[in-house]
Amino acid sequence: MSDQSGDDDSVLEQLDELVDVVLAEDMSPQEPEDPWERRQRILDSWTAIILAVAAVATAWASFQASQWSGAQSDAQSTSAIARADAGRAATAATTDTIIDSQMWLSWIAAVDSKQTARADFLDNRFSPQLVVAQKVWLSGVQLDAQGVPVVVPAGTPLDLPAYVVPKQVESDRDAAKAEAYLAYADTAAATSTKFVLLAVMLALVLFFASVATKFSGPKVQVMLTIVALVLLVVSATRMLVLPQYVSSRPDSPPDLSASSQGA
After folding, report:
1. φ and ψ at residue 149, rounded to 5 degrees
2. Which of 17, 87, 130, 185 has the fewest beta carbons under 10 Å from its own?
3. Measuring CA to CA, which residue among 187, 113, 186, 123 is closest to residue 157?
4. Share of the chain above pLDDT 90, in %
5. Residue numbers of the domain that contains 206
6. Are residues 225 and 43 in contact, defined by beta-carbon separation less than 8 angstroms?
7. Residue 258 lies in a domain
8. 30 is a domain residue
9. Residue 242: what are its φ and ψ, rounded to 5°?
10. Over 60: is that where the pLDDT of 32 sits?
11. Burial of 130 (0-12, 13-18, 19+ CB in 10 A)
12. pLDDT tens, 50-107?
């Protein structure tokens, strides 16, 4: 029984000592902090903050640089595809124009030789775009009972603005798309380069901040810390000005993306 009470007293004494340690009742008053140690503590705190912010900013700049670099590559590929589509559409438009011109020349020859049946046969086989241009070309011209002009107007319907070949319109649209994506690729490349330069500046921030406390001279330490801080502020400000993409990569020009969504 006495042994158990002795153990309890020992445990209580240990708890009492632990409370004294936690409450610091038995500790002597802290001595005034040395100015050198205080300066080092403040400098270490600033460099730690600068290093942390610079590390996050460097990772973000590298991410944005990769995003814009990928956007440049994709935009160039899309531009090349659109350019090829424009070329194929232009070839088809040239073929349609040649067919329309041959049909119209045969028709005008039949009209000139008074071959009404042949002229009517050719007229019924005009392409839709040639029919529209033909009506504009013959507007205001006197026609006979067969719909043949008594006097042939000057020029040709193929020279009128009303003559629009669908394939040529498609070719122009694809060519404009190719130019837009090519210009966007140049913009993306320039933006990616700017983020790479920011990553280099932030690497300098990491360098100056990490070596600041390695020197023994107070002036050198403070100077390197200030240089790191200035570079960090300039880099962060510049980064906020540049376009940022968080969830998706900017693969296409915003105006074309909006138009395609509207379509």
Report:
1. -65, 135
2. 17
3. 123
4. 44
5. 39-250
6. yes
7. no
8. no
9. -70, 155
10. no
11. buried
12. 999 999 999 999 999 998 998 899 899 999 999 999 999 999 999 999 999 999 899 8
Do the beta carbons of residue 192 and residue 65 sit within 8 Å?
Answer: yes
Paired with 149 in beta bridges are 143
Of 131, 206, 125, the residue nearest 162 (C-alpha): 131
Structure tokens at 58: 């460097």
- HSE of 203 in the Cβ direction (CA atoms, 13 Å)? 8
Q: Does 238 reside within a domain? A: yes
How buried is residue 70: exposed, middle or buried, by Cβ count under 10 Å (0-12/13-18/19+)?
middle
- Token duo for residue 77: 């590929």
- Asked if residues 30 and 208 have their Cβ atoms less than 8 Å apart, the reply is no
The secondary structure element, H or E, covering residue 71 is helix 35-112
Residues 6+ away with beta carbon under 8 Å from 123: 107, 134, 147
CA dist 154 and 183 (Å) reads 43
Give the pLDDT mean for 163-174.
Answer: 94
Work out how many domains the chain is built from and give that number: 1
CA distance 238 to 244: 12
Residue 262 has pLDDT above 60, yes or no: no
Q: Which two tokens stand for residue 263?
A: 């379509």
Q: What's the mean pLDDT in 177-194?
A: 92
24 lies in a domain? Answer: no
Indicate whether 187 pLDDT > 70: yes
Which uninterrupted H or E stretch holds 150? none
